[in-house]
Design a protein that fits this description.
This protein is of the alpha/beta class. The chain folds into three domains: 6-89, Rossmann fold; 93-287, UDP-N-acetylmuramoyl-L-alanine:D-glutamate ligase (3-Layer(aba) Sandwich), CATH 3.40.1190.10; 297-434, Protein-Tyrosine Phosphatase, Chain A (Alpha-Beta Complex). It is 36% helix and 19% strand. The chain has helices spanning 3-6, 19-30, 53-59, 76-83, 91-96, 113-125, 141-149, 165-168, 195-203, 222-228, 245-248, 260-276, 280-287, 316-328, 370-377, 387-397, 419-434; strands at residues 12-15, 38-41, 64-67, 87-89, 103-108, 132-135, 158-162, 176-181, 209-216, 237-240, 297-302, 305-309, 336-341, 361-366, 381-384, 403-409. The strands form three sheets. Strands 6-7-5-8-9-10 form a six-stranded parallel sheet. The longest helix has 17 residues, at 260-276.
Length: 438
């Protein structure tokens, strides 16, 4: 049995049974932990062994908690368990205990990390058949570890992980060869004490990195934060710009991705590839990457109207970037219909007032936070309870040469299970719109 797993005291409670929790359970069982000593807790999932934390702690008396990223470690019952000697760990720490020869790259940031990780995945696909890409994006790291343990896949040569701030709170045992931070901007302030606390949590990635940490030169508050931390001239920290001489030879401007922000993401990913010693075809593979689903995803034209799915945008900078990219590529004489809303997470909607100066932009608000978003942004526009109603309004108003952009700002959880679910709903409604005679 793996030494780390062997030293975990039982009973073990997995806290949060999303993809991360299920992967942790699978890995524990694969590592020969008796399933009778594993208990599942989820306050919202009816099939979980326990839904009440007090009942879990009193009846099971777990000695180890494997806490999923979506569950705040600051909760009173978790802090009480920790102070009483219960060991707190995570799915990602379990996975790290099984690593052998893999080289690891970690990527974090308020926005842009999924695109950067996907670019690295496209680069790896050009020369490696054993690489693993996952973490916060896609497949949990413990799934990879379980696959290797069960001999369902070979040990990876390279592992690329998207790391959220939540994961960086609880990742003991992680060691990265290289890392990158894409962007710093206000996000997740419902979880952190303040903006500084949030940024400090992201910056922990430096302490996990053995070699180089790369920073996006156009990363919002990132460079000022790094300089304030006295890392502006740190040899371990490199600031990367798409204007760097060493990147110009790769003609990154010929890449398929749309938008200047994606040029920044591509520059960061390319610089990582060069630091890591990847072959030249890796950067060519990145240049061919067309983009992520639900992130500035161009769905083409229907009845002459262009539709863009940016459902993943749950931060103001993401919305501003998407709106600017869509506006800059409008057809002559076209209007931009921007759908804003969802569920609030204490976001600075007032930042969207910068869009008020753009001509030919129609704002449409929807969802649980529609009134907060409209009041704080001071943007004028129609308001609807449901996304379906907002979409119908956009369909009725839009005509040939116009663009309809779903870049909501708020999370999806007022109506949908996830941003993917919301984006797929958007796509389905466009298909229905296509079948109607305009």
């Amino acid at each position: 049995m793996n030494a780390f797993i062997k030293n975990l005291k039982t009973p073990i409670a997995i806290v949060g049974m999303g993809k991360s929790g299920e992967a942790a359970k699978r890995l524990l069982i694969s590592a020969a932990v008796d399933a009778k000593n594993i208990f599942c807790f989820d306050g919202k999932l009816e099939t979980a062994d326990y839904r009440d934390a007090n009942k879990l702690m009193s009846e099971v008396q777990p000695q180890t908690l494997v806490v999923s990223p979506g569950v705040s470690l600051a909760q009173d019952w978790i802090q009480k368990a920790k102070s009483s000697g219960v060991y707190i760990t995570s799915e990602i720490s379990l996975a790290c205990s099984f690593l052998s020869t893999e080289k690891i790259i970690g990527v974090t940031g308020s926005v842009g990390k999924s695109t950067t990780v996907s670019l690295l995945q496209a680069g790896l696909a050009s020369f490696s058949t054993r690489a693993f890409v996952g973490g916060n994006l896609g497949t949990p790291f413990a799934e990879y570890a379980a696959d290797v343990l069960e001999k369902k896949r070979p040990v990876a040569d390279w592992v690329v992980l998207e790391l959220s701030s939540y994961q960086l709170e609880n990742c003991a045992g992680m060691s990265l060869d290289f890392s990158a931070i894409t962007y710093f901007t206000s996000n997740h302030l419902e979880r952190y004490d303040n903006l500084q606390h949030y940024y400090d949590t992201k910056w922990r990635i430096l302490s996990l990195t053995k070699r180089k940490l790369l920073l996006n030169a156009e990363g919002g508050d990132l460079i000022d934060y790094a300089k304030a931390k006295n890392h502006g001239k740190d040899e371990q920290v490199r600031i990367i710009s798409k204007k760097d001489v060493e990147l110009k030879k790769w003609r990154l401007d010929e890449a398929l991705l749309i938008g200047q922000h994606n040029q920044d993401n591509l520059a960061l990913a390319s610089a990582l590839a060069m630091e890591a010693g990847w072959p030249s075809q890796a950067i060519q593979g990145m240049k061919r990457f067309q983009g992520l689903s639900h992130r500035l995803e161009n769905l083409g034209e229907t009845h002459g109207v262009r539709f863009i799915n940016d459902s993943k945008a749950t931060a103001m900078d993401s919305v501003l970037i998407a709106a600017t990219a869509a506006f800059d590529t409008l057809a002559e004489g076209g209007k931009l219909f921007l759908l804003l809303g969802g569920r609030d997470k204490n976001l600075p909607w007032e930042q969207l007032n910068a869009l008020a100066s753009l001509k030919n932009v129609v704002f449409i608000f929807f969802g649980e936070c529609r009134e907060i978003a409209q009041k704080k942004s001071q943007l004028q526009g129609a308001s609807f309870v449901k996304l379906s109603q907002a979409l119908q309004h956009a369909f009725d108003q839009a005509s040939s040469s116009d663009t309809v952009l779903l870049s909501p700002g708020g999370t999806s959880l007022d109506e949908f299970k996830s941003f993917e679910d919301r984006g797929n709903f958007f796509k389905k409604k466009i298909e229905e719109f296509a079948s109607v005679v305009k």
